[in-house]
Design brief:
It contains eleven helices and no strands. Helix 4 packs antiparallel against helix 11. The longest helix has 23 residues.
Amino acid sequence: MNAKQNNNLDELLLRLQHGDYAAFEIIYHTYKKRIAANLYRLLKSWDAVEDILQELFIRIWQNRSTLQTDKKFEAYIFAIAANLVNDHFRKVFKDQKLSEELWNRLSEIYHPFDEGSAVAADEELFRNIDQLPPQRKKVFVLCKIEGKSYAEVSRLLEISEAAVNDHITKANRFLKANYDKAIPFVVYLFWHNLLE
């Protein structure tokens, strides 16, 4: 954001603090598409995206009098969005069927291990991976950390692709059951990448 845009944002935030609904609408239209696109990349559901966007901007409106223009508004708005996504995943994980579906979807579409420095800091996750049986750990590391396909791992370890799939399914189930910070970790990486 350049200096002129930042000054305009500061002015909009001052107006918003005083209850100016027109300023609120400008802020809403400025941020909604970018946030929605990033939410969809993680949630894969436009209904969930709309719910979170609505709650996000309701909170901004409700807390308008306490907004500070000397702090980064984008960091503030993305922090609220990240918290709402965390809340969404926690609700989903209370429903076992949805939990299984979401965990499988996340394991297929998102590989948090691509973020070397962030993952290196997450010792608990690696301790849980180390607890997997040796063959399952090999399969998991090759597929999820090294990014190899099931076919490549099948050839490399001389096991069937069905066996590879079985190991990944059981590893995901184990990590989900034993590493309850996995989803907040994914959400953290998602929003960390967004802000960079």
